[in-house]
Amino acid sequence: xxxxxxxxxxxxxxxxxxxxxxxxxxxxxxxxxxxxxxxxxxxxxxxxxxxxxxxxxxxxxxxxxxxxxxxxxxxxxxxxxxxxxxxxxxxxxxxxxxxxxxxxxxxxxxxxxxxxxxxxxxxxxxxxxxxxxxxxxxxxxxxxxxxxxxxxxxxxxxxxxxxxxxxxxxxxxxxxxxxxxxxxxxxxxxxxxxxxxxxxxxxxxxxxxxxxxxxxxxxxxxxxxxxxxxxxxxxxxxxxxxxxxxxxxxxxxxxxxxxxxxxxxxxxxxxxxxxxxxxxxxxxxxxxxxxxxxxxxxxxxxxxxxxxxx
Length: 310
Description:
The protein is of the alpha/beta class. 33% of the residues lie in helices and 16% in strands. The strands form four sheets. It has a five-stranded parallel sheet, covered by helices on one side. Strands 7-10-12 form a three-stranded mixed sheet. A three-stranded mixed sheet has the order 8-9-13. Helix 1 packs across helix 6 and helix 8 packs antiparallel against helix 9 (249-259). It starts with 5 loop residues before the first strand and ends in a 7-residue tail after the last helix. The mean pLDDT is 96.
């Protein structure tokens, strides 16, 4: 099976960089699409480059003529600019566009949140334009769900928020490294025709709120402090955040999705297994120091999540 020719946008991102390295290690021909001034000094050996401007769809056309698959890791504020790929790809030989997603399928309430809405709009525009697409779903990243309190788990503080039935509902996690290995496994050689129209899920480990709380107790030698949030409370907070365009609404929504089982349900049935990969475990992450940190988050941003612990 021959390699696909792959273009990557967002090569310096938190997910894009390890994906780039993993794909380059397979031997697949990789081209990095980058904006003017972006640092391309430390790319893996053999990776080619092309300067593009997502404000100008025409700048993408020549860069994509020798490409089979486009992988986008556009940052949240750049997601709407992916419409330029939708405009450019029909004028190229690209066989598959994979826009930035890396979450789970959301319901109508979730689509009220701008971060979800803008991603959905790109997917819908691609379908309307006849652009073959696929998305990769990961549920939650361990680094953001366990090393950072986005989903109401404060490992260092031995605290956990219980939303709805999250104590008994499973949350599906992936480490960033597993996602990178997953992208390499999926896209390096699989014919694009076999990937078109699919929502491919990666699921490295699953745990309920009770299972997480038990490991926290083992880690700290004391029961974690639990904060109980009703679904009615969470709905009210989501409404407030949507009205005020507050990005914290995504955190409230994801905790609700966990509490009603929609995170695992939102992954669907198309689960891709990465052959030969040793998956992380909850105990390894929380008790054996295997949990990596989540980006370089300023303290004031972390403090924005503290009011939820009440």
